[in-house]
């Protein structure tokens, strides 16, 4: 399992871990029931603070994407929820608003953004099939 952390990115490290685990699930690199590295192993592999990995794992567990079984480890959930939680939906809506504002000031048209969005959804559908 290979994680890539960009320490110069404005995205917090724990969010980069969350995104990469979610992406690996979508691409099939991580399968339901697959064991994840321990917090200690992953933090030493990435040379980051264990609290950062712990925070990512906690967030993923709250989202139902991973489960931790005491004494056995952390695993990809067998069936994670695909219905949006209200607070998560609100957060995503806020992120989309920020993206639209960024596109406006970068000179990217609504049509171009919609094309990229369609392309991303198509890629995810291809990966998951």
TrEMBL record:
Which residue numbers delimit the HTH gntR-type domain? 11-79
Q: Name one Pfam family in it.
A: GntR
Q: Which GO terms describe its molecular function?
A: DNA binding; DNA-binding transcription factor activity
- Keyword Transcription recorded: yes
- Keywords assigned by UniProt, alphabetized: DNA-binding, Transcription, Transcription regulation
On whether DNA-binding is a keyword of this UniProt record, the answer is: yes
Q: Which SMART domains does the annotation name?
A: HTH_GNTR
Q: By what name is this protein known?
A: GntR family transcriptional regulator
């Amino acid at each position: 399992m290979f994680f890539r952390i960009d320490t110069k990115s404005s995205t917090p490290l724990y969010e980069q871990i969350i995104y990469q685990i979610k992406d690996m699930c979508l691409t099939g690199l991580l399968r339901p029931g697959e064991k994840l590295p321990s917090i200690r192993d992953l933090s030493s592999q990435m040379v980051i603070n264990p609290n950062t990995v712990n925070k990512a794992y906690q967030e993923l567990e709250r989202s139902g994407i991973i489960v931790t079984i005491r004494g056995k480890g952390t695993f990809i959930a067998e069936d994670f929820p695909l219905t949006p939680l209200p607070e998560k939906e609100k957060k995503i809506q806020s992120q989309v608003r920020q993206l639209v504002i960024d596109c406006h000031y970068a000179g990217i048209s609504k049509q171009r953004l919609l094309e990229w969005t369609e392309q991303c959804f198509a890629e995810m559908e291809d990966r998951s099939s």
